[in-house]
TrEMBL record:
This is Exo-alpha-sialidase. Pfam families: BNR. It comes from the Bacteria.
Amino acid sequence: MKMLIGVVTSVMIVGLIVSTIYFYQSSNIPSQEQNQISGHINKEKVEQLQPISNTIISYTLQNDELNITYNKGLSWRKVPVEKDRLFEGEYNGNKKELIEKSYFLSEDMAAFLYTEGEIGDHQKVVVTYSKDKGETWKNSVVTEGFSQMRYRKIDFLNDDFGYVIISGGRTMSFESSHIFITHDGGLSWKETTNSGVTSLISDGGFIDETTGFLSFGTINPTAPELYFTHNTGETWSRATISVPEKYQQIFVSAEIPIKEGNHLAIYVNQGHHGDYEGGKIKGKFISEDNGKTWEFEKEGQAIETK
């Protein structure tokens, strides 16, 4: 009798152990429904893109790729450019946002400026652009055999006319800067006459198809250095900015002029190390001769701080 009880007890214990193991294994095998839910969650994590700014037209660098939106993020189009390409060069930005001025986004054009090829003096400068809100894309080569870019800017004034400004080959406070023009909406590019200035460029741009400006001096400038063209870059000349004695060595870095009524206006800031009024005040100057000469008008707008 004792033997029978022992056998029954052993069988019950073995059965209990087997049942426990089976239950544990079954509970760790996800069902088809669980797999579907998990996959859906992971998919949402990949696809839930957020615009970099609260504007109708914007972009995102999430998931290590560049996507653009024309409706505040309701739908997206992928840009066929490797993310790392967008940050190559001497200046790399923070890689959380695109380098300022290295791209152009409007209702009619999306364009991104970057380099291809081995790092050194043999890189291609390329523009990838779309004129149909990202449905189709084209590439155009701006120039070949370029050194690492430092400054870069792309802009379009209309459907046809646009420009690219790049600098590279920096040695201490010297570098070469180059301006390229397109008259066919980015399909082809032609370099303008070189300004001949070897100071570091701080800004540049065209205000119409013939009138453009280049501003130089980023390392401790002592006076604004602004050059202009009235013939789409065939020739460049230095502008005269009459800085009152009170503001000399204070307002030292010229920004790009803007049209204001029947004249041009320009703001001249204090550079990176200005301390007049906390370094936040700019000088406003006016030109009545399309940018050749500039006269002081007043202390202008405060520098925006984030």
